[in-house]
Amino acid sequence: MPLSAERSAISVLGASWLSDSSLLLAGVDTRGQMAAATLVDGGWRVPVRWRSTFYSAPAHRWIAVVHADEPVRGKPEMRLEIGLRVERQAVDAGRVADIATDLRTLARAHLTALGSAERRAIVEFLAASTADAGANRTEQVRLSRSLHLLREMLRERLPLCELRPSRVEGLVVESLMGLDDEAFYIEGWLCDGESSVVRMTAVSPEGSRTELLDGVFRYPRPDADEFFKGAIGEIAGAKYGFITLFRPDTPSLLPNGWVVEVETASGSAVEAPAPVVVRDYKRVRTELLSDLENDSDDRTLLRGHISPALSALQTRRDRGLRTERAVQFGHAPEHPSVSIVVPLYGRIDLLEHQLAQFADDPDLHDAELIYILDSPELRSELLTLAEGLHRLYRIPFQVIVLSENGGYSNANNFGAAHARGELLLLLNSDVIPARHGWLTRLSAFYRSLDRPGAVGPKLLYEDDSLQHAGLYFAETWDRGTWMNEHYFKGLASDLPAANIARRVPAVTGACLMIDAELYRSIGGLSGKYIQGDYEDSDLCLRLWSGGFENWYCPEVALYHLEGQSYPSAARVANTRYNRWLFNEMWSDAIARVMRESTQSAEQPPQRRNGVRPARQARQSRMKEVSVP
Amino acid sequence: MSTRVLYIAHNHPSIRPGGAEQHALELHRAMSATPGMESVLLTKGGPPVGPTGRVHEGTCLAPVNGHANEYFMFTDGYTFDYLNGTMTGKDFYSKHFREFLHAIKPDVVHFQHTLFLGYDLIREVANTLPNAAILYTLHEYLPICARDGQLVRSANNELCEEETPTRCHGCFPHITPQAFFLRKRFIQSQFGLVDMFLAPSRFLLERYVEWGIPRHKIRFQDYGRMPVRRGAEPSRQTRNRLAFFGQLSGYKGVDVLLEAMRLIQLESAPAAAGPTLKVHGANLELQDGEFKRIVARLLEETRDSVTLVGKYRPEQLPALMRDIDWVVVPSIWWENSPLVIQEAFLNQRPVICSNVGGMAEKVTPGVNGLHFRVGDPASLAEVIREAVQEPATWDRLRRGIPAIYRLDDQVAELRAIYGALLAGGLSSEEAYAAVR
Fold first, then answer.
1. A329 touches B at CB < 8 Å
2. Number of H-type helices and E-type strands within chain A
3. Closest by alpha carbon to A274, among A327, A204, A213, A169?
């Protein structure tokens, strides 16, 4: 009941907590005097953000939402004040505890009886008000749940889409993925055989509405074709499938409650629920990459939807990434000239093998050795193993544990951030030195160059054949698209051409030496690539653009125990994406780099499209033969 | 000031008999009895092979029953990575083994074996006792070959001439070539800390030099044996009694020998007094099912000429050898310096053996024994027939039997080696030359 009868121009008809820090108010303001709603606790004004809106009928009715930064619910002396535009005074609306009711009661009393247009406006107003909410995640989720409750009480429900093969109309939402709170990726299929779709709207659980039709990607769905074949036969070029990336106006946090509405030109409208929002990084990534196979030839899906989605996903993951633990074993050298950074992912047994090879090499006792665990679930195993190995091998090293799996770039960049040496050496965990003294020789080589960017030594397979003797770029069958190749891969390590120290377009990240300051100033490895592919060549091309030179140093050799792995479907999709991304950025530059490359004689000859020109004589002969 | 030596072996003969471990025990006891020297023996107790042994909380060590200076180190509760030869729980080395070293304070650590204990023991010695001399006697090819150190390929038991990561992967398809590369580098990293390797045969020495041990770090030294007191040799009309001594395993070729006996039996007239064979040995029950079935069938088919005598103790050997004429060593692997050949020679018995590796090195055909083509029962049958035809053959070959390296000579030589290594010049050529 309104409590300030004497100032009956403004009154608060109802109040209800949306969370412990957000309050929903409904009231009357016959003279348009309301300026602000605020909370006062024992004489002290609580800093809040508020917004209000009038709805058209009945007249003079408003609702408002007040957001505080901290939870304020439950304070017995909290009072509500409505500030007036005129007179700069405030109306004391009473103790919040006395006027607040539960949300359903408020809604039924003041909102549910309104017309559909008003109700829709209110739901959108409420969704938009989340912009004022504080940063406390738990509070944000509570707020979202309250808004969802209100949405359910207030929204105009459309008939649920019923799928029948005889009725050539249907909408199914198959998956909905949350890249972060503000970007979503939705997939399903849509059949508009009866009448064209004119509106497709995604409604978030909190109530915000986003139009999807513009820019949605359509693709063929043989299973849907099959379903409707009985009713409409086969329509060539039908594209029932849809995929789109979309960004609602306001963030959405809840996993359940998304609805998609579809309206056709005939005026019929249906809705379909979306499944639970999937946010898990790995699942989302796998799903996005597997969609590549649905792309059109001009790569619309990749460019317009998959790539920005992956970017948003990577950014979200990177935002949360931090060093969980850093443990130093032994005493690191005071002023190391080289810091060796080794990411560990999926397996930790190689640590023992590297330390067994480092232990008796004096060079390694002067270097800073940093292992970064990019599989945090192995943290206790690794720290126990590291402790035992340190006691045995007596070589100082540091173990850094990341808060989650951050990927190859992040692991190296985090390692580099902890590094204190002048030179940085990125090293794979499956790289084993051949002889002692390799680090000194490699550093000396680096320092002997004028403008060194990245330097890489010779790397060998376990059978002493060449794994890496410098990296170059080869054009694929798809002209203008380049991929990474190693010079002389698989050949004998004493091949003369592989034993010339020279400038190369790039070197592999498996063993890459670079000035530490240079690495940091250039931003380290790029986090845009998925899982580990092309980051090294991307770095080398950035160095090249900055006027630095990348060199191959054959006098230093190590073993790189790259095993044979038959790529899974997921890995193939990763590589396709990474290669596309790499080429988007560097395709033009690479053409120039390859022309400049001093060892053009050593490059394998490029066969354009792998096809020989047809021979005339043969063709004419074939015309004479009659085909049975 | 006496010199204290610590011998380390993978097994104590009281748990399970075996050649290398028997020799380690004899060496330790002989060294203990030498004035100016003290000796301690440490062997693995517990799984695998030994029963669970540890009974005291908080320690991996216990003395061997009733013997001073002989200890078990129990591996219960630790997992051994057989491929790389290391315990996964490193405190086995940096806590338990280190404490033992601090307590015993040896001047010399002489490894006989690291199987089921781990190569890291070497590194721990170097860490804890930087002034100790470290030696390693190589008894077989385990550092080179993951197939029980036999250098025999798994496809068809053919002898392996050359190890590479790819070939090793061929014998173990579930282990990658990269894993074999890592295994070799890991072992070599620990071996780099050893001052001197001892090789009981020149054949083995050369295989290890090929594998990567620097030649100046490895020297030949056979197993020293205690001499055997023998009575006069009774004369006989025929010398056709053959014997096999050793583990009844496929690698030892006992099935090749039984098949040869079967072939001989086939060709002889029935009831004719052909050659007989006594099979002395143990551990048939440990072999795989297929092999056991083959041996059982062959024993059945040759029961007229072959007797399975079973286990024997080393001290029974002179008596057992007395009752036979020829010792057959039909191993299908290269062998190193088979103790059984030394035992045969100590007991004045010529040897018939495979024509490869350490066997061929120790037995000179036509002088003190005969060779047959390795793994070939027909070849062995032919050699046996030739050997037993004329007793004069046996007499002649018996006269060609060389003197066997004596244990006390080995002890004296080792003393000199230990002294030279401790005196400094841990990597000097002169130190090694001085002990010749």
1. no
2. 17, 29
3. A204
pTM above 0.90, yes or no: no
What is the residue type of A159? Answer: P
Structure tokens given for B162: 């050359």
Tens-place pLDDT, residues B361-394: 999 999 999 999 999 999 999 999 999 998 899 9
Which DSSP category does B225 fall into? Answer: B
Chain A within 8 Å of B189 (Cβ-Cβ)?
A: yes
CA A221 to chain centre: 27
- Out of B84, B94, B189, name the one closest to residue A388 (CB): B94
Q: Return the percent helix, strand and coil in chain B, to nearest 5.
A: 40, 15, 45
Q: Is the peptide bond before A58 cis (omega within 30 degrees of 0)?
A: yes
Average pLDDT over chain A, rounded to whole? 89
Q: What gap in Å lies between CA A485 and CA A472, rounded to an integer?
A: 5
CB A97 within 8 A of CB A78: yes
Looking at this protein, which amino acid is placed at residue A177?
M
- Contact of A334 with chain B, judged by CB distance below 8 Å, is answered with no
**Among residues A161, A261, A246, which one has the least CA distance to residue A203?**
A261
The per-residue DSSP string of A267-326 comes to S-EEEEE--PPB--HHHHHHHHHHGGGG--TT-HHIIIIIHHHHHHHHHHHHHH--EEEE
Which token pair is A52? 């209000």
Q: For the segment A137-181, what is each residue's pLDDT rounded down to a tens digit?
A: 999 999 999 999 999 999 999 999 888 777 777 899 999 999 999
Tell me the three state secondary structure of residue B295.
helix
Question: CA dist A482 to A72, A207, A473, A535, B391, Å?
Answer: 59, 46, 6, 14, 82
Rounded to whole angstroms, the Cα distance separating B5 from B204 reads 25
Residue A323, strand partner residues: A402
Measured between CB atoms, does B177 come within 8 Å of chain A?
A: yes
CB contact (8 A) between residue A462 and residue B90: no
Cβ–Cβ gap B178/A352 under 8 Å: no
Residue-wise burial string across A209-245, b where 16 or more C-beta atoms lie within 10 A, e elsewhere: bbebeeebbbbebeebbebbeeeeeeeeebbbbbbbb
Distance CA B430, CA A480 (A): 67
CB-CB under 8 Å, A360 with B192: yes
Query: Within 13 A of A278's CA, how many CA atoms are on the CB side?
Result: 17
Nearest to B181 among A392, A394, A462 (CB): A462
Angle of helix A116-128 relative to helix A137-154, nearest 10 degrees, comes to 170
Number of neighbours of residue A322 by Cβ within 10 angstroms = 10
Place of tokens 């400038």: A503
Nearest CA in chain A to B87: A388
Cα(B245)–Cα(B328) distance, integer angstroms: 8
H or E element that contains B296 = helix B289-301
Per-residue pLDDT tens digits for A300-347: 999 999 999 999 999 999 999 999 999 999 999 999 999 999 999 999
Assigned token pair, A126: 């409420």
Residue in A513, A497, A519 with CA at minimum distance from that of residue A438: A513
Query: How is residue A170 written in tokens?
Result: 């249907």
**Which chain A residues have a beta carbon less than 8 Å from that of B93?**
391-392
Largest CA-CA distance found in chain A, in angstroms, rounded: 108
The residue type at A607: R
How far is CA A136 from each of CA A16, A444, B60, B62, rounded to the nearest angstrom?
20, 53, 54, 61
List the beta bridge partners of residue A53: A63
Chain B interface includes A359 (CB < 8 A): yes
Q: Which of A353, A389, A462 sits opposite B90 (nearest CB)?
A: A389
CA nearest to A404, candidates A385, A379, A430: A379
A195 residue type, one letter: S
| Chain B residue numbers touching A385 (CB-CB < 8 A) | 90
The one-character DSSP state at A114 is S
